Amino acid sequence: MDKKIAFIGAGSLAESIISGIIKAKVVSKENIFVTNKSNINRLEYIQAGYQVQCRTNKEEMTKQADIIILAMKPKDAKLSLESIRGYVNKDQLIISVIAGLSTATIEDVIGIDIPVMRVMPNTSALIGQSASALSCGRYVTEEHIQTTDLLFKTVGITKLVDEWDMHTVTAISGSGPAFIYYLVEAMEKAAVESGLDRATASDLITQTVIGAGEMLQQSGDTPAVLRKKITSPGGTTEAGLADLDKNDFQNIIQSCINHARERSIVIGKSE
């Protein structure tokens, strides 16, 4: 792919996507640019580890990119978008991996008819075993879908879903590994009851379980450590885990998924 990609955000998820793209040789290292809010040490680590182009001039980097991947924390998203909106154009593609942030919100903040794809990977992307759901903004074409699909197949499987279903996907795929592998049947039922079709739910849940199992085998971390890494304060994972402490494991599965999904909706409305 002869395109320049700019990552705004340099956390573990961005790193896993960068690693997958490079390993698959989809984009050359020279065409991958990375910046973040203020962590210079993190940028130096990414540049040393992957030989990509790490910059502090976010605006200039954004202007030169063909694809902009938003990978910052949800709380930083609005200010970050406002800082780059004067440097983007309709010929670019924005891909957001920010949980809870809708394509419509991104379009409104940027203020132009720019194509926006939304993607929900999970932390199993670190080992190429993510179950990533994709959804489209108003100005997306088939080419944009294919481009996004190609990029995220480098870190696992992909499924195209309606954007409203992203809240369910966030619960079962994004937060799923933190729930320490509960009954697959219960997770699928919760997803279907929330409106996701059974085939898509089954594929995403199966891949999520496989990826999480590989993380337990390969990462060297205990289940508790892996869970804590995923559990962000005020996030969907914490919302689900809070209920697990109050109720019996077998009876809480559906409630856990539904509460995590509801939290995703709340986060989306607050952005």
Can you write the helix and strand succession as a string?
EHEHEHEHEHEEHEHHHHHH
Q: Which radius of gyration do the C-alpha atoms yield? A: 18 Å
CATH superfamily of the largest domain: NAD(P)-binding Rossmann-like Domain
- Average pLDDT for all residues: 88
Task: Briefly note the CATH topology name of the largest domain.
Answer: Rossmann fold
The percentage of residues in β strands lies in 5-15%
Could you name the CATH class of the largest domain?
Answer: Alpha Beta
Number of strands: 8
Low-confidence stretches: none
Give the biggest beta sheet. Answer: 8 strands, mixed
- The CATH architecture name of the largest domain reads 3-Layer(aba) Sandwich
Coarse morphology:
globular
Please count the helical segments.
Answer: 12
N-to-C CA distance:
33 Å
Give the number of domains.
2
Give the class from helix and strand content and strand pairing: alpha/beta
Helicity, as a percent range: 40-55%
Strand order of the largest sheet: 3-2-1-4-5-6-7-8
